[in-house]
């Protein structure tokens, strides 16, 4: 039988998600902006399933189509890191974009994860003739970087589940993430810190910025965007 759930989307609009569960058939779902459309789809799809005429959305749409839809959605366009996210999604598009969603399984994604780890990193550099070419760095991706690629695909698949109704479940939920190195954290020693501050005092603005960064642990963008009105004191020593 079909159930219709009223949901609020990320952009504030209201949608209606239909779920159909019939014994002996895989569950189907879809999302609509109007309840009348949701009801019509539910009745037609139920009838088609019973008559053996229905093919699920995951058998009709490709991964490339899903990525295209996600990149047009507010969930992607409003991200500060949208450009970085798109570069990662492009990797999945080039590698598996022609796959039907039903074939984008945890096993396929795990295969992609290993492929990401095995590839050499490249950068684009402009030669003397002004032409951009890709240069092999002879360096592999780290576990942390590979996890960012998995996270990008997971965001797109979640959109396919929640907003489009093309997927019943996010396949990334069953893909193991890689362990990430904590990395090496180095701080200035007892000799370096005083010398840095003495040098920075030559420029009052630089000195203040460095002092704030050292004492608060704030990022560069956070420190440089601070205003006096955000401080409890008007004087720094």
Q: How many angstroms does the end-to-end distance come to?
A: 71 Å
What percent strand? Answer: 5-15%
| SSE topology string | EEEHHHHHEEHHHH
Individual helix count? 9
Q: Name the overall outline.
A: elongated
Roughly what is the average pLDDT, rounded to an integer?
Answer: 84
Give the domain tally: 3
The total beta strand count reads 5
User: Rg, please?
Assistant: 25 Å
List the defining traits of the structure above.
single chain; 237 residues; alpha+beta; 3 domains; three-stranded antiparallel beta sheet; two-stranded antiparallel ribbon; 9 helices; 46% helix
Report on this model:
This protein is an alpha+beta fold. It folds into 3 domains: 2-54; 63-174, no CATH class; 192-230, no CATH class. The protein contains 9 helices and 5 strands, in the order E-E-E-H-H-H-H-H-E-E-H-H-H-H. It has helices spanning 35-51, 63-72, 74-77, 82-96, 106-118, 143-164, 192-200, 204-216, 220-224, and strands at residues 2-8, 14-20, 28-32, 120-126, 132-140. It has a 3-stranded antiparallel sheet with strand order 1-2-3, with helices on both faces. It has a two-stranded antiparallel ribbon with strand order 4-5. The protein is elongated and about 80 Å long.
């Amino acid at each position: 039988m079909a159930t219709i759930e009223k949901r609020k989307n990320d952009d504030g609009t209201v949608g209606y998600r239909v779920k159909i569960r019939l014994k002996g058939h895989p569950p189907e779902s879809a999302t609509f902006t109007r309840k009348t459309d949701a009801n019509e789809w539910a009745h037609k799809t139920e009838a088609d399933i019973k008559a053996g005429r229905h093919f699920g959305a995951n058998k009709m749409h490709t991964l490339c189509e899903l990525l295209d839809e996600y990149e047009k959605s507010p969930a992607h366009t409003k991200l500060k890191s949208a450009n970085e996210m798109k570069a990662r999604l492009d990797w999945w598009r080039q590698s598996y974009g022609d796959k039907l969603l039903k074939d984008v399984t945890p096993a396929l994604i795990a295969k992609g994860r290993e492929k990401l780890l095995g590839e050499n990193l490249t950068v684009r550099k402009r030669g003397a003739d002004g032409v951009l070419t890709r240069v092999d760095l002879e360096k592999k991706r780290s576990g942390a970087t590979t996890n960012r690629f998995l996270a990008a695909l997971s965001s797109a698949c979640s959109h396919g589940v929640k907003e489009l109704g093309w997927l019943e479940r996010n396949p990334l939920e069953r893909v193991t993430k890689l362990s990430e190195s904590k990395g090496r954290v180095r701080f200035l020693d007892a000799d370096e810190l005083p010398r840095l501050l003495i040098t920075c005092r030559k420029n009052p603005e630089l000195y203040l910025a460095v002092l704030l960064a050292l004492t608060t642990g704030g990022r560069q963008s956070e420190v440089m965007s601070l205003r006096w009105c955000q401080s409890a004191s008007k004087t720094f020593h």
